[in-house]
Design goal:
The chain has about 550 residues and is of the alpha/beta class. The chain has four domains: about 220 residues, 3-Layer(aba) Sandwich (Rossmann fold), CATH 3.40.50; about 55 residues, no CATH class; about 70 residues, no CATH class; about 170 residues, no CATH class. It contains 24 helices and 18 strands. The longest helix has 16 residues. The protein is elongated, with a radius of gyration of 27 Å.
Length: about 550
């Protein structure tokens, strides 16, 4: 038993001994299916804090001959599998975390990894010849023990991310990985290859060293999607156990749609449960500068795409040209793809290399909020800082101030050549209420009555003191006309069953004077007509059928991406 070769199960034991442990051992059953087969190499690229390292600890504890893990696994899902005993602690295991070597070895990282492994090998197999390349040493150990190897490489891509300006080092590193996973010797000694990171691995410049890996990403994790992050059912169980409001947890941490599953950030959910407090736990682990690094690139259409996404619109992304290199971004779509891999955008797959990008939840939205507030887009930063003022002015029915702040938002978010575009106006207004999602579910084009309300603001649980709001936008007409339309087309029907106050907000933009006007009225709902079988379809909130109380239910569901 060594530190890197045939480790014990201490890390997995620590994980399962934590106050919160959600059983993800079913992953082993999926990996057992590919053991010693042509597709035995699996690469999992997910955002930070999505359970990749914990999964690596799980794999280590199950396969390593350096420990006996039967008792630890006996109470978990994998123990019910028919092949549980067949593969339990039967393999030589190598487990390395590349980031731990990169932190102190710098450009000598490959040599440091090799030397650390050889040190372990020599302790356990002192009579093996070591004056040969590492993969030959592993092959000799395989011949000696008759046990194949499970090789786990955590944070595989940190060399790619941290040393992009050193192509010789990257090339050396890729050759090293090739020897472990694709050499002739590896074809004999390798039972399972498992690598994790933020980036996929198939297109690193001109390298094809690891093209034998089956990739599982934030965009497509296929059969193992449920093992990275928490499913909705798992979160509900935790909410019951810790007496936390599921609706609010969903609004904060849900939104990643991966292979049809709604996945929650596990790190954030666990901390919210333990601390009994909703907060941006995950964003505190990553530098906000990474957002500004990509959203402020000067590619055609990128700024407009970001604003549309933040305003809740659908933005189609082609991920095909992304080279899995965060320092080599050459287009709008590549910048958006990078943000998807980093977890700052969700992704709704719609075909090969195409899908819809969106902001997944309020926690991530706060990251964008902070990035925009402190980033190089000065006009946008100024507008974002005024968002709270706008909401406050709206709630106070201060029509003049609302009009002034909307004008500021319009100038900040819309380019000159699109300033009089109606759709751009809608985006600008939505962005003006950017921070309102702390208190409201915000829905664009809510079906109701005889049409679609431009914007509906439905108070989130715990914010019942705030009124609901229906906002109607007009172009070259009047704010009063907007209010009349809300009434005439019965947009308040969408809030049937809602017993609180409703603000009717009419906004008009005059393209000649470039002035905004606002009209606000209080609406006290009486008995309203149900709006049956209407559908909302929005990437941020999902497709829903509205019955009598469904709009109110939606406020309790938070963001959805189904």
């Amino acid at each position: 038993m060594g530190l890197y070769l045939n480790p014990n199960n201490e890390q997995f034991y620590a994980d399962t001994s934590s106050d919160i442990y959600v059983d993800k051992t079913g992953l082993i059953k999926e990996l057992n299916k590919v053991l010693c087969k042509s597709d035995r190499c699996v690469a999992v690229s997910h955002a930070r804090r999505f359970g990749k390292t914990q999964a690596a600890n799980l794999i280590e504890a199950y396969y390593s001959v350096g420990c006996n893990s039967r008792d630890i696994f006996s109470k978990y899902e994998i123990a019910q599998s028919d092949d549980f005993e067949e593969h339990l602690n039967k393999y030589n295991v190598i487990h390395i975390d590349v980031s731990s070597f990169s932190d102190y070895s710098g450009a000598d990282v490959v040599e440091s990894i090799i030397q650390a492994l050889i040190d372990d090998f020599q302790d356990l197999f002192p009579d093996i010849e070591y004056d040969v390349p590492l993969h030959r040493i592993i092959y000799k150990i395989y011949q000696r023990t008759k046990n194949r190897f499970v090789i786990i490489v955590d944070e595989w891509d940190c060399i790619i991310r941290n040393y992009a300006d050193q192509p010789k080092l990257v090339h050396r590193y890729m050759q090293f990985l090739h020897s472990l996973f694709k050499s002739m010797e590896a074809g004999r000694f390798l039972a399972l290859g498992y690598v994790t990171g933020i980036l996929p691995i198939k297109k690193i410049n001109d390298e094809s060293a690891l093209n034998n890996f089956r990739e599982r990403t934030m965009m497509d994790s296929k059969n193992i999607a449920r093992y990275y992050g928490f499913t909705e059912e798992e979160v509900k169980v935790l909410c019951d156990e810790y007496d936390m409001p599921f609706d609010e947890i969903k609004n904060w941490y849900n939104g990643y749609l991966i292979n049809g599953l709604h996945m929650y950030n596990p790190n954030s959910v666990c901390q919210a449960m333990m601390n009994h407090d909703l907060c941006s736990y995950w964003t505190n682990t990553s530098a906000f500068s990474s957002i500004n690094q990509y959203i402020t690139l000067g590619f055609d259409g990128l700024r407009d795409a970001i604003i549309k996404i933040l305003a809740g619109e659908e933005v189609v992304v082609n991920t095909a040209t992304f080279r899995n290199d965060l320092s080599n971004i050459n287009s709008r779509d590549e910048a958006l793809t990078a943000l998807i891999h980093l977890g700052y955008l969700g992704f709704k797959k719609q075909g090969d290399n195409r899908g819809i990008a969106y902001v997944p939840n309020y926690e991530v939205k706060q990251a964008f909020w902070q990035a925009l507030s402190t980033g190089p887009w000065k006009e946008i930063a100024k507008s974002v800082q005024k968002c709270d003022d706008l909401l406050d002015a709206t709630l106070k029915a201060d029509e003049e101030q609302v009009a002034q702040l909307l004008e500021l938002s319009h100038e900040a978010y819309v380019s000159i050549n699109k300033y009089n575009d109606e759709n751009s106006l809608s985006c600008a207004i939505t962005m003006a209420y950017f921070t309102a999602s702390a208190y409201y579910t915000v829905i664009r084009e809510l079906p109701s009555g005889k049409g679609f309300a431009d914007l509906a603001f439905i108070p989130l649980p715990g914010n019942s003191s705030k009124p609901a709001m229906i906002v109607e936008l007009k172009y070259d007409k009047s704010a009063e006309t907007a209010i009349d339309q809300i009434k005439d087309k019965r947009y308040t029907d969408a809030l049937a069953g809602y017993t609180g106050d409703i603000l009717l907000v009419g906004i008009n933009y005059d393209p000649k004077s470039k002035k905004h006007t606002c009209k606000i009225e209080h609406w006290h709902p009486g008995k309203q007509i149900p709006n049956n079988n209407k559908t909302i379809d929005n990437p941020s909130f999902g497709s829903k059928t509205l019955d009598y109380f469904d709009t109110i239910k939606l406020s309790n569901q938070g963001n959805d991406t189904e």
